[in-house]
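Q: Hi! First time doing this. I have a protein sequence and I read that you can turn it into a structure. Is that right? Here it is:
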Amino acid sequence: MLDMITIFVVFVAGISLLVGGIGVMTIMLVSVTERTREIGIRKALGAKTGSIMFQFLCESAIITLIAGIIGILIGYFGAVGVGKLIGFNAMVSASTILGASLFSSAVGIFFGIYPARHAAKLSPIEALRHE
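A: Yes, that's right. Below is the predicted 3D structure, encoded as structure tokens:
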């Protein structure tokens, strides 16, 4: 029974990560659109494509890391609360928390690649002309 519940939770978590990743990608694309002039100025002053990509990838990784930490806290306290109600002892290892944090950042980096490349490929002239 516990294995079936674990499989179900993993399935739901996978769908949540996919939806969350698409949300992060959308947010980052909006950020790129809003900051087009800033990107154009940076490129006109000599910023390399890699540095602009790095900036946007760091932003997406930090966003998802913060969201992952919030999710870990909610999950932990939810597990402890439900465990007390049904007489279970909820145990979460430090390696699980570290793994979940790293995985949430990895999801942010994966889904942030497209917006970061989009930002890095902008032409400085077109970016500065953008209103």
